[in-house]
Structure formats: C-alpha cells, structure tokens
Amino acid sequence: MTLKIFEQELRKECQISYADLKTGKRKNKLKNKEINSLTDIFFDKNNPLKIYRSCVITFGNVLENTAMSYAKTMGYKIWDKKNFMGIKIDILFQIIKTIYNLESKANIELDAGKTRRTLEMLNKKHKAIVNSQQASNVPVISKILVWTKADAKEAIKVAKTPLEEKHLMGVEEFFRLFKVEIKKEEFFKMIKNVWDEEIEPKIKQGELI
After folding, report:
1. How many C-beta atoms lie closer than 10 Å to residue 93's C-beta?
2. Residue 108 CB-density burial (10 A; 0-12 exposed, 13-18 middle, 19+ buried)
3. Which residue has the higher pLDDT, 49 or 133?
4. Residue 205 half-sphere exposure, CB side, CA atoms within 13 Å?
5. Across the chain, what does the average pLDDT equal?
6. Residue 144 phi/psi, 5° resolution?
7. In a 3-state reduction of DSSP, which class is residue 100?
8. pLDDT per residue over 136-183, tens digit each?
C-alpha cells in the first residue's frame, strides 16, 4: 500500500478549505484584519507573504481533517463529532480494539510554557475520552502526531521537557498503524506536490482579484 489514498483525501480537503482563495474571500478577510501580531504590522495588506502564511496555517487543519477521512476510507471507526465533555479532539479513530487520540502538530519545537500546556491538554483529552461511554472497556492511546518528523525518536530531539518520547508519534509511525510503510521524504514530496497543484495556483489567481 502507498500514500495514494491519503493523497486523494488530502486533495479533497484542500478543495474545501481553500475555496475562499478563488473567490477572493480570504484575501479580503486578511485586508480587513485588525493588527494583532507583528506579521500584521510588518506586512502590507497587499503583501502576498501574508496570504501564504495564512494558507500554511490552514494546511495544518487540512492534515488533521485528512487523517480522519483517511481512517474512515481505510475502513475504521471515526468520531465525526469530536467533542468529549466539551473538549475538542483533533484526530480520533479506532483500529480493531484500540482507540487512537492524536493531537495534531506541524511543529513540536515549542517554548517551555507551550510545551507544558501541550502535554497538559493531551492528558486532559485522554482522560475525557477514557471516561466517555464511547471508550468503555477499550484501551486509548494518546499521542502528539508530529507531521514533520519520521518517528518519536526524531521528534523528541527538538521537543522540550516535560514531553517524553512516549508522548510523540511521527508520520511514519502514523501510517504504520494502517499497515502502510513509507519514508518521511515520500510524505514531504507528496504534500509539496499537493500544495503546488491545489493551493499555489489558487493563491496566484487570488492575487489578480
């Protein structure tokens, strides 16, 4: 098995999440955005870097949604409404008799405060799922899925305490859950191709609106 199914689902999610590029809605929203960050100060409202940054941030959510649709397409149970006790879960699916609760992260190189809060949130979500009726008598594995690292060993090299290797999962390990063996370089190449074909042209088109 290959990345093809994931790629197909990723393209579908891109078409949904970046539809506002073609209409110009995202560009107008960024133009009217209040100054809330240094990016808003340094980049002119018409600076294309601003919309690129917005699209990269959105891509993190696209990967999260794709992981869910991928699990469903592969024939496993997912939870469409991922709210447990008022807590939003990023990625939640069940393979055979194990539930996987994954916190989606594109970057794990966080400062000490954010690292601590990330682990606290992971533990909080884990507890909420374990205590829910849906997870009754089913083991729950909770990890932080780092899309930019191959595995937990690689991710822990940049992660700060109190995170430990046991809390992390890389992209190769994610696909291994579905019995798909890949290398991170294959994954990077695939998502770059999707970006170049599904998103880049829409950004260029949006600049003309």
Report:
1. 21
2. buried
3. 49
4. 14
5. 90
6. -95, 115
7. strand
8. 678 999 999 999 999 999 999 999 999 999 999 999 999 999 999 999
Position 135 pLDDT exceeds 70: no
Give Cβ neighbours of residue 136 (< 8 Å, ≥ 6 apart): none
Return the structure tokens found at 125. 């979500």
Q: What is the dihedral of CA 159, 164, 165, 167, to 10 degrees?
A: -100
Q: What is the pLDDT of residue 206?
A: 59
pLDDT (0 to 100) of residue 209: 42
What 3-state class would DSSP assign to 166? helix
CA pair distance 82, 141, nearest whole angstrom = 16
Angle between helices 4-17 and 48-73 (to 10 degrees): 130
As a whole number of angstroms, the distance between CA 27 and CA 33 comes to 10
Residues above pLDDT 90, as percent of the chain: 67
Give the up-direction half-sphere exposure of residue 42: CA atoms within 13 A in the CB hemisphere: 6
- Are residues 169 and 151 in contact, defined by beta-carbon separation less than 8 angstroms? yes
Residue 32 is predicted with a pLDDT of: 82
